[in-house]
Amino acid sequence: MGARTFLVHGLVAGLLAGIAAFVVAYTVGEPQIDKAIALEEAASAPASDGHDHTHADSDESAGHSHGDEAAVSRTAQSTVGLATGTLAVGVVLGGFTGLLAALGLGRLGSLRPAASTALLAAIGAVSFSIVPFLKYPATPPAVGSGETIDSRTAVYFGFVAVSVAGAVAAIALARWGARRWSGVPGVLAGLGAYALVVVVAAVAFPKIDELGDFPAGILWDFRVSSLLTLLAMWAVIGAVLVALVDRTWRRHSDVRARRELAASL
């Protein structure tokens, strides 16, 4: 089983994960985005001054609708755009996870390929998505200033980099501890090291609070739906990749066993 096999398996898993993430995001996430957009539009609508401007504004409104019409409709954003995004992210994450599984083959103690793949997929989900989400949870379109989007993006990916680097260091420490002591103390040392890194980083990285008076209920529902989308993507990546790796490994094992049997006759 070479790296190419793991990569292909990862791409297939990522494609299926992107489809699953799209279904979850469209079902439970898009309604929350629609609510946030409606709130934003209501807040930006001009207040009535008590006079009737219906006739005076009719031509002006018509001209405005054509001049400022969005380049991409909301329907396209919530269907084609969303599907394109989830498929692209799923394929990238799946392929990267497949390569990590190939790199970890035989380097995680006596774990079989399927078990080591499952472990690395879980580590990737936690370090790349779940822990950063807990520090900087997703926010709907109506939340946050456009002037700070670059700084907020930089801080988020900086925290992701620290989390992933901490996971890599924790794996190295766990392997060293397993050789020096035994499996369980080594694993506990790695987990403790990662927890320490992310806790220190969470305290050191700046807090972002631009919620204003956004309704707490809609914000909660949006963040739950975003987390469910992430979990769906990683769950499918892990499950499909593990199943494909295990099937390929069993086939290779059967072929090798038959060759050894034929050579012994």
From TrEMBL:
The chain crosses the membrane at residues 82-105, 117-134, 154-174, 186-205, 225-245. It comes from Nocardioides cavernae. This is Putative cobalt transporter CbtA. Signal peptide: none annotated. Residues 44-70 are annotated as: Disordered. The lineage of its organism: Bacteria, Bacillati, Actinomycetota, Actinomycetes, Propionibacteriales. Pfam families: CbtA (PF09490). Residues 49-70 have a biased composition (Basic and acidic residues). Keywords: Membrane, Transmembrane, Transmembrane helix.
